[in-house]
Amino acid sequence: MSNLSVPLLKALGPWRNAKAWHVAFSGGLDSTVLLHLLAQLRQTHSLPPLSAVHVHHGLQAAADAWPAHCQALCDALSVPLQVVRVHVQAGASIERAARDARYQAFVAVTQAQEVLLTGQHRDDQAETLLFRLLRGAGVSGLGAMPRQRRMGNGDLCRPLLDVPRVQLEAYARAQNLSWIDDPSNTQTDFSRNFLRHEVFPVLSRRWPQAAASMARSAAHCAEAQGLLDELAQQDLHDASAVGEFAWLNLPSLELAPLVRLSAARQRNALRHWLAAFTPLPDTDHWAGWDALRDAREDAQPVWKLAAGELHRAGSRIWWLSGEWLLAPVGPVPWARPDQALALPGNGRVGFVGDIPDGPLQVSYRQGGEVMALGQRGHRDLKRLLNERGVPLFARGRLPLVYRNEQLLAVANLQGLDSSPCGRWQLQWLPT
């Protein structure tokens, strides 16, 4: 058994009962060694079904020959190979675009309870740390590549992250393996290649253990980030009480528990919460949070982020994205009020109880609406919404049911959503 086999099996211990292992197989040194090691280990150990996935980016002519090379090795090892061709979007960073396309392909291949195995090694981890350090990354970024993480419906694992490249190369030569040398890896106009070919040789001559030390620092940062995540979960728990308008089905937090925290803990908690919804701003662009937090109670401030907006309304902050940032389309005729009505871009609305006589239609606020409220007479809708503290961003989306020119009901608002005698109630399930 190779001296790489024992640490590899240990790293893969949590995944021994997975439904399948897929190796991200570029044909390069690291993925070739990983695939060969696993193919050898399955002869003496009970492992999940093993396959390989080669992503063809089509970015250079030389790459057209790589699927055949990968197929030949997989045939020799009796490992099934899937070749996935992807289109790389043009943009400022071809490296990032290629990586995004590659991982989209991996997500599509890796199903629930399956694992994608990649061959990144210790030198890659050191490069990642230095690259992110030069970009001003925080603790999370300086944790570099995680050993494992969720990926789509499955998981991603990097079992060789503690192994130096020189050890992988020694194994490959001892086993007479051949691998692909990507010509683009020598182009030092790519930032990572510049670090690999121009910076790391100098560092290693002065500090021979530089890569090992950097990888160790990345592990320390990853551990520190884990502690920050635990602190964020505690702080968010205190701010996660269900509010009056939980039926909006929007992510929201109570503001007061956040404001009681130090500024650093506020940012830490919000980073943790927002990471599920949007790419996060860098340190220089957190002034938007300060402005939203410190605004007057009646100011209805908004912080615009990459994938949506954070709104402050009442005593809470709310995350809005997608259709919530667009005006709903109306009016919508309701020909069959005995059935729920799908509202374009705005969920569904339906009656509970008896059905009011028609003809009915659903519309949205335009301003100046008046509603008859029995003993209270005719009341301005704006005032009624103010009395109930309806968040400003939700007012233009509340379904209003009309019969001819008469406003019959406003969905989901007690006292406004039902007939005077309570024979029916208008319920809205937002998008």
How would you describe the overall organization of this protein?
With 431 residues, the chain is of the alpha+beta class. The chain has 3 domains: 5-223, HUPs (Rossmann fold), CATH 3.40.50.620; 242-325, Chorismate Mutase Domain, subunit A (Up-down Bundle), CATH 1.20.59; 332-429, no CATH class. Helix content is 37%, strand content 19%. The chain contains 14 helices and 19 strands. Strands 3-2-1-4-6-5 form a 6-stranded mixed sheet, sandwiched between helices. The longest helix has 30 residues, at 210-239. The radius of gyration is 29 Å and the shape is elongated. ATP binds at residues 26-31. It holds the Pfam family ATP_bind_3. Belongs to the tRNA(Ile)-lysidine synthase family. Keywords: ATP-binding, Cytoplasm, Ligase, Nucleotide-binding, tRNA processing. It catalyses: cytidine(34) in tRNA(Ile2) + L-lysine + ATP = lysidine(34) in tRNA(Ile2) + AMP + diphosphate + H(+).
Topology:
Blueprint: H1 5-11, E1 20-24, H2 29-41, E2 50-56, H3 66-77, E3 81-85, H4 94-109, E4 114-117, H5 122-134, H6 139-142, E5 148-151, E6 154-157, H7 165-174, H8 191-206, H9 210-239, E7 252-254, H10 255-259, H11 263-274, H12 287-294, E8 302-305, E9 308-313, E10 316-320, E11 332-334, E12 341-342, E13 348-353, E14 360-363, E15 370-372, E16 378-380, H13 381-388, H14 392-395, E17 400-403, E18 406-410, E19 424-429
Parallel strand pairs: 1-2, 1-4, 2-3, 4-6
Antiparallel strand pairs: 5-6, 7-10, 8-9, 9-10, 11-14, 12-13, 13-19, 14-17, 15-16, 17-18
